[in-house]
């Protein structure tokens, strides 16, 4: 067994760590107060991120991406996630689902997304179809050479600013689902209500509405009726990256709690001298350590090209475990801060709110447990 992270990946991780500390964290308060940063700061962060090679990390080099495997992507996202989603998400990381683009679509969607000229959003969830993705009602009907789309999506991240949407719509009984790439400005396609959320200010969610929205056959991503397969592949990588974000947020919280515990004097001594505080820190560090290695292992397995079903199940395990771990860790770290941790100007207060979403999006903890349990009951063994 080789537990080494090679020099190239270690360098990339270090660079992402420094970028987060120097270029993202200083703007957190601004993003928090203004629900995002002003355009000039956004452009500056993007420019620096592009020069640092942080755009499109997992997209193959032949399309201008970073060409990193899953482990490399995890290592860097872990670092960027130490800041807030409102800043980390300014750095374009086009969805890997876009690798299914045909040549014409690559020119229109993938390559501009890699260069940061166009942004996408991923539109699956609907008011009556969250965990149960088979319940989606947005429909696409073939009329002549075109498809006509009707329906609405909700909770869609970046819906307000995206240049195009990756939209899943029912195209047949079963249901059969097809994935469409739909540009903003297409008649019948509009952004609906913007949602107000608990955390990650600047990384916004909104509804998307389709009313007799006519799109061409060329807008289908992959093959008609094969949208679920694309969706599953996307969710798999999304879940591994969710675990990576949890590692980053948990580590930042632990470091803040450690610093606070060393500085805060009560009863004539730093609270870090109290064994109960030391035990909380020890529990947090241990939980992070164990989850980190499990996450790296799954990412590494993915890079070895292991079977998709195996990775799906392992991704469900680490997504559920890392998000629950981060929730426990950040809660303890806030406790170490005492009342200071409850104050709005404390970064730990922000992390506490931000980390909560990881147990919900990309499939809830309960949905991940369903996947793990199904595999265990069917096969009767636990993947190594
Ligand atoms: C901030 C944010 C950003 C998002 N971004 C996007 C996006 O960009 N694109 C997109 O398509 N979606 C997005 N979503 C939607 C997200 O993926 C869903 O919210 C999530 O999948 C859960 O669906 P739901 O909210 O409808 O909850 P429900 O499905 O209604 O679940 C409610 C509760 O029931 C439980 N539950 C449901 N089914 C089962 C079951 N079979 N067994 C046990 N328990 C069950 C759930 O675990 C949960 O606890 C986003 C959501 C949020 C909050």
Keywords:
binds flavin-adenine dinucleotide; four-stranded mixed sheet; 11 helices; four-stranded antiparallel sheet; alpha+beta; 384 residues
Topology:
Blueprint lengths: L6 H18 L3 H7 L4 H13 L18 H11 L4 H4 L14 H12 L5 E4 L15 E5 L2 E12 L6 E9 L3 E8 L5 E7 L9 E12 L3 E2 L5 H37 L1 E2 L2 E2 L4 H29 L4 H30 L9 H9 L9 H15 L5
Parallel strand pairs: 1-4
Antiparallel strand pairs: 2-3, 3-7, 4-5, 5-8, 6-7, 9-10
Describe this structure in words.
It is a single chain. The chain is built from eleven helices and ten strands. By secondary structure, it is an alpha+beta fold. The strands form three sheets. A four-stranded mixed beta sheet has the order 1-4-5-8. Strands 2-3-7-6 form a four-stranded antiparallel beta sheet, with no helix packed on it. It has a two-stranded antiparallel ribbon with strand order 9-10. β4 and β5 (176-183) form a beta hairpin. α8 runs antiparallel to α9 (308-337). The longest helix is centred in the middle third of the chain and has 37 residues, at 227-263. It is globular, with a radius of gyration of 21 Å. The two termini are 13 Å apart. Bound molecules: flavin-adenine dinucleotide. The site of flavin-adenine dinucleotide (FAD) has 20 residues, from β1, β3 and α11.
